[in-house]
Amino acid sequence: MRKLSPVLVVMAFVVFAVPAYAQAAPASGNWSFAAIGLGIAVAAAAYGQSRVAGAVAEGLARNPAARPGIQLALFLGLAFIESLVLFIWVMIFLRAT
Hints:
Helix content is about 80%, strand content about 0%. It is an all-alpha fold and about 100 residues long.
């Protein structure tokens, strides 16, 4: 099975988001923008976290003695990825209101 490029997946999200912009904005803000933006951010973060977890598993399989250093890098990487999602979440809701 052929893998889809992450760029193609993001482009598909953008193409399917166009009809949401064609509709009139609700009175309480542009929540369709927030939902689409947050969905893209969460999808990108999940993809990044899966890549990090795969790299950690491969690193531990190659060198089990390096577990403390790899584990520290894993937790820092996952924390940074999650913090980016939270920042995007805040920025989207600030933009939508």
